[in-house]
């Protein structure tokens, strides 16, 4: 009991550091998910509807990015870009790396979602005289959206977890903040658990939000 | 059609000219910069020092309860800032992990790194080390009211002594270099090796003397040093290679903090983080030549 009140005491002392770290973690994740998803939709569309050359280029991009550990991407965007004259701060470099990583995953999800729709749908749309634009907007996209929502939520949660890697290039996100606190009070077990709990809360909220959107967009049975 | 083509021609000509010019400027710039100015001038013109250090290792570089970076490494940077601007606070910190120490120096993300960096031959090929500001070694910490009085008593007790140590490939060999027969218990984190000592599962904790000194300062009267150190390592700051002017300046600042006008600054920091008073350098014949 004594230990627990000491732990609460330490949390109270470090409350601003924890909140700042939480804020940074949330903003990194939100930014990289939004930017990565927008890019990812373009990637997905190129993979399905692009011409041969575009498809090839985008395929190389996604395969290369998906086959590279996120940590390597983070280090590359911080160090390699600076050698060719693009000076990014740790936060910007980190968001860039995560957004690019996210885009390759979302791209594959979008591609999968679109390709899972039976060819007959497109043919039927053509038969009733819809243009390609209309077919895409009214027939394919709404169906694909429902297909890839669960996978997209999963990717979003992955991005939150990947944000911890930015501590390596000195972004003071939740994990680095936690380590800073531990180095002061030596309560490693308690504070790592606490950080784990906070990450869980963030990811659980994302999951609930995803479920909510799924319910809202579900086709009534 | 012809006009159109002509346009493309002009644009591509202009673009290639621009590319050439850019390439020329880019290739000319570093050479010119190196000849004309040193990092020293750059830092002075900028008005603050960019110091690379960590934030997760007490007493070297860590955050105070009010979220300020502090520690012995940080104070070394403050000594350099004071020498530069007469103000130890004119520092922009780059928070970096231990892995980032050398890359951040070589890619110019920092002017100077002070982050308990052990001097090794391999590292000295990549960056330039300043003069040392501390010598680290492994020490043994005992409970103040414990069974063993000092290192001699631990050694005499032979295999009945248990030492708690941080998990490491070399941990066993490291302890046995000082206590050949002792039982070695390895733990995953620093707090656990201290806990083992506190709870009596270990008779002594072996780790970096600076960490022990800090812990003993934090818990005054509960622990004592066994009075033996081994595994020496030199800590020095690092700068980019090839800028002797800047290296000389940092060396001078550190040197005078350990032997000259800024000795009080250094001694105060030493007392704060390691809990020991330093004797002032002997007046008269310079201590360096003894």
TrEMBL record, chain A:
Residues 22-210 form the ABC transmembrane type-1 domain. Keywords: Amino-acid transport, Cell membrane, Membrane, Transmembrane, Transmembrane helix, Transport. InterPro entries: AA_ABC_transptr_permease_3TM, ArtM/GltK/GlnP/TcyL/YhdX-like, MetI-like, MetI-like_sf. The chain crosses the membrane at residues 22-48, 60-81, 188-206. It comes from Rhizobium herbae. It is found in: Cell inner membrane; Cell membrane. It is a multi-pass membrane protein. The keyword Transport applies. Pfam families: BPD_transp_1. This is Polar amino acid transport system permease protein. PANTHER family: L-CYSTINE TRANSPORT SYSTEM PERMEASE PROTEIN TCYL, MEMBRANE COMPONENT OF AMINO ACID ABC TRANSPORTER. Belongs to the binding-protein-dependent transport system permease family. HisMQ subfamily. NCBIfam families: HEQRo_perm_3TM.
């Amino acid at each position: 009991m004594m230990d627990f009140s000491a732990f609460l005491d330490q949390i109270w002392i470090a409350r601003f550091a924890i909140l700042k770290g939480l804020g940074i973690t949330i903003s990194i994740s939100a930014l990289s998910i939004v930017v990565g998803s927008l890019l990812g939709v373009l990637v997905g569309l190129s993979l399905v509807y692009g011409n041969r050359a575009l498809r090839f280029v985008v395929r190389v991009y996604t395969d290369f990015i998906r086959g590279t550990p996120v940590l390597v991407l983070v280090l590359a965007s911080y160090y390699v870009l600076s050698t060719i004259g693009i000076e990014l701060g740790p936060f910007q470099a980190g968001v860039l790396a995560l957004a690019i990583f996210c885009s390759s995953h979302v791209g594959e999800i979008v591609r999968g979602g679109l390709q899972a729709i039976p060819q007959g749908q497109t043919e039927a749309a053509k038969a009733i005289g819809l243009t390609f634009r209309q077919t895409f907007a009214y027939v394919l996209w709404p169906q694909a959206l429902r297909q890839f929502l669960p996978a997209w939520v999963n990717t979003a949660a992955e991005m939150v977890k990947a944000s911890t890697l930015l501590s390596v290039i000195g972004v003071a996100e939740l994990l680095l903040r936690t380590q800073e606190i531990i180095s002061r009070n030596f309560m490693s077990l308690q504070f790592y658990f606490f950080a784990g709990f906070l990450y869980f809360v963030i990811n659980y909220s994302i999951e609930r939000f995803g479920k909510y959107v799924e319910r809202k967009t579900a086709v009534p049975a | 059609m012809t006009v159109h083509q002509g346009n493309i021609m002009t644009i591509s000509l202009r673009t290639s000219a621009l590319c050439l010019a850019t390439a020329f400027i880019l290739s000319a710039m570093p050479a010119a910069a190196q000849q004309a100015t040193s990092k020293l001038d750059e830092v002075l013109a900028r008005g603050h020092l960019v110091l690379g250090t960590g934030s997760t290792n007490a007493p070297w570089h860590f955050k105070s309860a009010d979220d300020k970076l502090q520690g012995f490494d940080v104070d070394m940077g403050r000594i350099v800032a004071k020498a530069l601007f007469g103000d130890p606070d004119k520092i922009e910190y780059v928070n970096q992990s231990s892995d980032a120490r050398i890359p951040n120096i070589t890619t110019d993300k920092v002017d100077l790194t002070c982050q308990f960096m052990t001097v090794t031959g391999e590292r000295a090929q990549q960056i330039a080390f300043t003069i040392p500001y501390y010598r680290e070694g492994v020490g043994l910490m005992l409970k103040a009211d414990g069974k063993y009085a000092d290192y001699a008593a631990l050694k005499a007790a032979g295999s009945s002594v248990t030492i708690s140590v941080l998990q490491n490939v070399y941990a066993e060999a490291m302890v046995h270099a000082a206590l050949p027969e002792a039982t070695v218990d390895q733990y995953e984190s620093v707090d656990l090796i201290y806990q083992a000592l506190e709870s009596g599962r270990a008779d002594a904790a072996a780790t970096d003397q600076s960490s022990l000194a800090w812990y003993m300062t934090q818990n005054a009267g509960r622990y004592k040093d066994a009075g033996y150190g081994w595994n020496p390592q030199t800590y020095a700051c690092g700068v980019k290679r090839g800028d002797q002017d800047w290296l000389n300046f940092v060396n001078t600042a550190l040197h005078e903090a350990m032997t000259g006008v800024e000795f009080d600054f250094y001694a105060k920091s030493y007392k704060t983080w390691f809990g020991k008073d330093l004797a002032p350098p002997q007046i008269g014949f310079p201590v360096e030549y003894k």
